[in-house]
């Protein structure tokens, strides 16, 4: 009777049994005596390929496999190995990128911190103040109406001016705030702090300077800040703040400097503007815990680290290095304020260079680990003829009110706030699962297969570094 054809794994098993002593071979039924055959490296690799836990290798190295079968399985295994390596490399790169996810929780406190409200008139220089200080001609020469017209600096000695005091003396005063009401209680211009911004002299409410920061314990316009302001269009003159009629407003964390020229929202004259706020408390992971923010970051010119403060400090250092002066909203000590000629010739061109080269100063200014932001939802309606006719502020006329007055209400739309917290989106265990999944899907291998390969390599190296194993 003919012997049945043995499989590849039976061949491998028979080879192992031949190395045993005094045992009956389940294949031949004979008793073999202990021998120590000297096997070459090729035979050792074949034995390992037939016994390792990896699909396809027995078919490629089996004694009963022909050349065509071996080539086919070699192509399949090579393709599977390439696919597995591609997937594993992709997962490792993803792991090293330190991905994060955001967990959102709604917090309902008994009260919420009311933001600082900074307001700037679009007109930085009052006409009457320029006339009384005898600088009207200077302002007209150095601040032309059109950007296509070059300013005239001839005949002026700018060194005799203290430019920070100059801009403060010609700016609109806090008395332009005609009515101030905080949660039903009257407030005055004394509750506002003078703030120098990139739009000139502005005024901030709830800065915490000399008083506790205000909090709101309920939502709705009656539990917020209500302002009636006079834009004084008859005082509009040359300047750099803007061309609108009304105010630029920004709500921000009291610890952050306001970047008025780039952020905030506008409120026009003759309009009643409602600004509903939603607060976000954001917590980012630091560099020691998978994130990108750096704790204990300090700034030279500001007590508290924030992204806006760091950007302004980055711009300050850049401008000082180029122009040897700073703009009025910058805080570098012992550095003079740029005069109009320096602003035109150096500050503005280099600020544009800074925007192109530095942008957000991402290298110098990582994201803060903790921050508070406010999302603003605006709605507007024009002041009605009836109410402007009955409105009495120093006996002003209704037409003047419609052309100059601004009504602004700022309040929380909900006393709850949203806390956004980062956490690692990919961990070492998930990486191991993906690597194991890639190996198992296309090769039928596992982590123990890697252990088998490492064991074989170590044993090979220790017994002869690839030479004949005896």
Structural notes for this entry:
It is a single chain. The chain is α+β, with helices and mostly antiparallel strands and 470 residues long. Among the domains are: 41-97 and 428-465, no CATH class; 105-126 and 171-290 and 375-423, Acid-sensing ion channels like fold, CATH 2.60.470. 34% of the residues lie in helices and 21% in strands. The chain has helices at 8-18, 41-51, 57-61, 67-96, 127-132, 136-142, 163-170, 307-323, 340-357, 385-390, 398-404, 428-443, 447-463; strands spanning 100-107, 112-113, 116-121, 177-182, 185-187, 192-197, 200-205, 215-216, 225-230, 246-252, 265-268, 271-283, 370-382, 405-412, 417-424. The strands form three sheets. Strands 1, 4, 5, 9, 12, 13, 14 and 15 form an eight-stranded mixed beta sheet that branches. It has a five-stranded antiparallel beta sheet with strand order 6-7-3-10-11, with no helix packed on it. It is elongated and about 110 Å long. Residues 15-39 and 466-470 have low confidence and may be disordered.
Range of strand content = 15-25%
Q: List the helices and strands in order.
A: HHHHEEEHHHEEEEEEEEEHHEHHEEHH
N/C terminus separation: 37 Å
Instruction: Please compute the radius of gyration using only Cα atoms.
Output: 38 Å
Which structural class matches the secondary elements?
Answer: alpha+beta
- Helical residue percent band: 25-40%
The residue-averaged pLDDT reads 81
| Number of beta strands | 15
> Could you say what the CATH topology of the domain at 105-126 and 171-290 and 375-423 is called?
Acid-sensing ion channels like fold
Number of helices: 13
Global shape: elongated
CATH architectural group of the domain at 105-126 and 171-290 and 375-423: Sandwich
Main location: membrane
Protein name: Acid-sensing ion channel 2-like
Pfam families: ASC (PF00858)
Subcellular location: Membrane
